[in-house]
Amino acid sequence: MKKIMILAISVLLFACAPVLNRELMKEGTANPSLPDLRANPDAFKGNLYILGGVIVQTRFVQNGSQMEVLSLAVDSKGYLKDTERTMGRFLAIYPRDRGFLDPEVYKKGRAVTLAAVFSGLHTGRIDDMDYVYPVFEIRQVYLWEEQRDYYNVYPYYPYNYYTNPYWGPWGPPPPAWWW
């Protein structure tokens, strides 16, 4: 009984665990307003933020691996909350000296949660439009499992009295007037 109770408590504790390091979650501010960062970047430079979103693209640049992310809100544990609303896009750079993010793993459509420090703004392009990206340096990244479509495939059984729930082993049921 004691082992079952310990197992149940540990499952509950780990089920509610944050996706990122606890110290980073406490130190960082969740869901920064990207328009505010664009309007007054000097006031927010150097602050740690907890961000979430869906990867638009990942590529290598001079500083390291760069992810362009469509932002989504995160809750207090780093889980993505709202898949409908976004505040725009941001760039997240993983420094070259700490390794790299493989573009085949961190590919378009994958969800991420980041602990990152705001470092400034970068003007880029989305198709034919100029866009001002807030740029963050990644401290820790959590890549969510890839969403896959699963289809249930049912085997085909021929129609006979063994598989038809209304027929018995002696044939079809009697008509309704029989009763």
Strand order, main sheet: write it out: 2-3-4-6-5
Low-confidence stretches: 3-8, 10-14
Largest beta-sheet details: 5 strands, mixed, barrel
The class by helix and strand makeup works out as: alpha/beta
The name of the CATH topology of the domain at 19-143 is OB fold (Dihydrolipoamide Acetyltransferase, E2P)
Order of helices and strands: HHEHHEEEEE
CATH fourth-tier homologous superfamily of the domain at 19-143: Nucleic acid-binding proteins
Q: What's the number of extended β-strand segments?
A: 6
- Counted by DSSP, the helix tally is 4
Quote the beta fraction: 25-35%
Structure, described:
The protein has helices at residues 2-15, 22-27, 34-39, 41-44, and strands at residues 29-30, 48-60, 64-72, 89-95, 111-126, 129-143. The protein has a domain at 19-143: Beta Barrel (OB fold (Dihydrolipoamide Acetyltransferase, E2P)). Helices cover 17% and strands 35% of the residues. The chain has four helices and six strands; from the N terminus they run ααβααβββββ. Strands 2-3-4-6-5 form a five-stranded mixed β-barrel. The protein starts with a helix and ends in a 36-residue tail after the last strand. It is elongated and about 85 Å long. By secondary structure, the protein is α/β, with parallel strands linked by helices.
